[in-house]
Backbone:
């Protein structure tokens, strides 16, 4: 029997010990559904009229689409559809582990926070994707001895199709020292997120902090990042901190002070000034506007 759910919320208990599960679902999704931060990835195939809030993105979707939920990016959903049938699979990074598959995961829209988490599908594409989910359901419920390998193959094919349907910007080419150090800087920056607790605040907040961790002079780091990306190191840091600040304001009940401390600000007033400079609004105003 295929498990059904009336919404898109899941808990770690929904995952098998191997770190994978797949569902066919029906029924309406509650109007405002906020996902907590999890340790697993999720891919949803569905048809409907919805608004998806992912990180600081607001995406209006209709018809049939794939939605990729990244454990590093909290999300919420406003559903205006009639609860059409949908599919979802959940899996941990450990389940899909393996050099090539892990690289595929990290380069896919599922992992990159700068890519859209939604891919609209044509009727033909929807039929193909539905077939993949149906295949995963059959394998997951069956007793095939190498079922896990087949499930990983289906996931790999799904991710490849996502890359084909929604091309993303290629990673920075490691053709020279500047490109290499820039890539390492961006990976180190992104690796600090998400912030899970205010008790473990952000450690690297300045170009000097990152230069020390990368064992290079700060001037070299700044020149390399500006040369490769066109933006200063400080701008990359500020923009990423702002994205996390928006996510914490929207998806947690932490106080503004706790959010400020978790992001490495010594005083809430410093955070208020920073947030207003980047967004034009103070944190409390932004939070109220998202309620």
Residues:
């Amino acid at each position: 029997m295929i498990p059904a759910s009336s919404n898109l919320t899941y808990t770690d208990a929904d995952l098998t010990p191997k770190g994978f599960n797949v569902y066919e679902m029906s029924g309406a999704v509650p109007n405002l559904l906020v996902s907590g931060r999890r340790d697993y990835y999720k891919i949803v195939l569905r048809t409907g009229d919805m608004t998806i809030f992912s990180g600081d993105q607001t995406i209006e979707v209709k018809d049939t689409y794939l939605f990729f939920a990244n454990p590093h990016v909290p999300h919420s959903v406003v559903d205006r559809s009639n609860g059409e049938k949908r599919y979802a699979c959940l899996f941990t990074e450990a389940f899909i582990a393996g050099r090539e598959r892990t690289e595929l995961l990290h380069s896919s829209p599922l992992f990159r926070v700068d890519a859209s988490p939604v891919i609209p599908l044509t009727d033909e594409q929807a039929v193909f994707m539905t077939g993949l989910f149906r295949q995963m359901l059959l394998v997951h419920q069956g007793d095939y001895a190498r079922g896990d390998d087949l499930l990983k193959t289906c996931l790999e094919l799904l991710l490849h199709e996502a890359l084909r349907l929604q091309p993303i910007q290629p990673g920075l080419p490691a053709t020279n020292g500047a490109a290499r150090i820039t890539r390492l800087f961006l990976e180190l920056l992104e690796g600090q997120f998400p912030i899970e607790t205010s008790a473990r605040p952000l450690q690297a907040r300045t170009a000097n902090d990152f230069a020390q961790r990368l064992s290079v002079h700060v001037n070299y780091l700044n020149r390399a990042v500006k040369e490769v990306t066109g933006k200063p190191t400080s701008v990359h840091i500020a923009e990423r901190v702002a994205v996390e600040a928006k996510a914490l304001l929207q998806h947690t009940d932490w106080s503004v002070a706790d959010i400020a401390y978790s992001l490495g600000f010594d005083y809430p007033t410093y955070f208020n000034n920073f947030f207003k400079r980047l967004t034009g609004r103070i944190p409390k105003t932004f939070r109220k506007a998202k309620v």
Q: What stands out?
A: Residues 1-13, 31-37, 171-175 have pLDDT under 50 and may be disordered. DSSP finds ten helices and nine strands in the chain.
